[in-house]
């Protein structure tokens, strides 16, 4: 039984995602449809790319991921299907699969969706999620061959998912993603962080601990860091919303000094 | 494998929708349950009717749609099941299926749900979504005959889903629905709009284009119009929230002059 | 086809719940996954316990309920699976199943999850929902024996889900749960309330009626009470948000005088 996931910026109040599901079930009533999220900030392609990048590997091999954050719908931006790392990805060619491209490197094949016999017949110029990507995913889930869906391309769009700069004494990264709890996930992988290390962020020295509950309850708003469930350095406050308390935004710089040098001395 | 959709004003924080799903799966563990939305504004029957009207046709024929926005639950308002256009609709008789009735006209059969052997045994007077409509939908999905569920009626409740007034020189419509993106969907079908036409709204002349990305990026808050994926005229601003920027509410008038006559001249 | 439900405080914007679903489907692609809610207030174990308590009985016997509100993840708090009342419950041992324990009393068996061969291999210390509870639930749904998942324990954590004090003349309860509509659900079961009874709350005498629509429309903000679909006394205002209008919080006292004695006379 094949799995199709959906990730969009459509929100939950309208019927847009239901329209996509209806189209999918009309073509393949046996497939499983799983919502990743529909609450990507409107038009935020980068956030969608990162959100998908954090979760696709946990699904069964062969899962078809449909991602639609698509301000360019109707223009000459292409629709694509990518095969990468044993998974499929269907959506607009606007960089929404960039995290996957970085992750899977040589294992990526991308096709421009040109076979419009597969598309919904009343194909709109404003809702390719329903009219193009949903039917493509549904047919793919029934075994339709990917190379019959379109033409292989190499000039697909990649957006920059920032990587940290790592050198001998310092790792310079940034806040990549703020989650529902207000935790600030950085782009620094735990495997690069030596045992003796200090995180510096916004002029604060932040201690790395092992799990949330290990943070000191006596100083409730003190920030801490840990290596999170995606293997990334994450900043948080215990039982609170770090991003709101400290007005954190995605993109802010985070540094790691590889020896224990307090921030003020470092300067 | 039959499909049951759910549309309510129950929100997502409580277990109300889960209770309905549990009841359905207890009766028919093989059916597919798809959420349309549970974020209809509390008690807003008209919004529910329009939301359902926009999406039901995209589901497989035979899909059973349960809709529950039901301020009259427990009173003498009837529960109904309707067969219309190849689909089934289960819910309160308060006009929630009015869009369907308008769409399907002669193809509508409505039954008052009187066969309480089908209902949950501890039938409450406050939650017919769980105690009446969920079991009815589940039994229907297993092939229980619709005419054994109750008594056919003709005096079912219809609420007014406003239609535009179309005459020689002008189409007078209104904002029907504001979506998650802040786009304002009107009740004017694209097929009635001639090629040379001007949309006038709130004293503004608005240009009709083909897709969102075609709007001029140099004037970011300028409103535009297009024919949307439901075939309806829709007003929007590029990459922004039209309804919030312009304080739009559902029901506001929209006019289309069939020749290019700027609004101020028209007056 | 077995059913797994999910209840968390993860929200809907991130991919956390999708990661759990991916893990489950990788192990058992045939099981049904139903979201109860992911909008429990962050870290609010008691709210999670009550929300689950309100709905689990409506699912098919054998349903596996995974509940994750887990501020203690990674610490020495245990992971558990409970068998109770014909259902299974998987999650942290922090009291999140306390409503179930109270409901099912003698029918409860709890196991400390120690069989880490079942866990995800890259078991994190911050996301046991994905790495421990999801795989345990998935294996359980495939028939893995519960007593092979861990060691039976009796000292599992219970938190207090307050019960009303019932004596001859008065029932002293409290607001247990405020729902999406702003209705205030008390912990007083309808079966204990005599026919002649007055509800007193915040100095107001409140009339008990049978259903929402029965409330008088002429006094739109007047509070009313009824016995709700969970069999509990509930306070509300007609077509409005009682909790917001009256600044109600969970825990506030509610009293029922068993004879009709107006509140001011009672004092």
Task: Give me some keywords for this one.
15 strands; 8-stranded antiparallel β-sheet; 6 helices; 2 domains; elongated; alpha+beta; homotrimer; Rossmann fold; 7-stranded mixed β-sheet; 267 residues; Elongation Factor Tu (Ef-tu), domain 3
Write the element-wise H/E pattern of chain A from the N-terminal end onward.
EHEHEEEHEHEEEEEEEEHEH
Q: Multimeric state of these chains?
A: homotrimer
Largest interface: A-B, 32 and 36 residues
The class by helix and strand makeup of chain A works out as alpha+beta
Q: Could you name the ranges of chain A where pLDDT drops below 50 across 5 or more consecutive residues?
A: none
Can you count the helices of chain A?
Answer: 6
Largest sheet of chain A: 8 strands, antiparallel
- Which of globular, elongated, flat, extended, rod-shaped describes the shape of chain A? elongated
Number of individual domains of chain A: 2
Strand elements of chain A, count = 15
- The helix content of chain A, as a percent range, equals 10-25%
CATH top level assignment of the largest domain in chain A: Alpha Beta
Rounded mean pLDDT score of chain A: 94
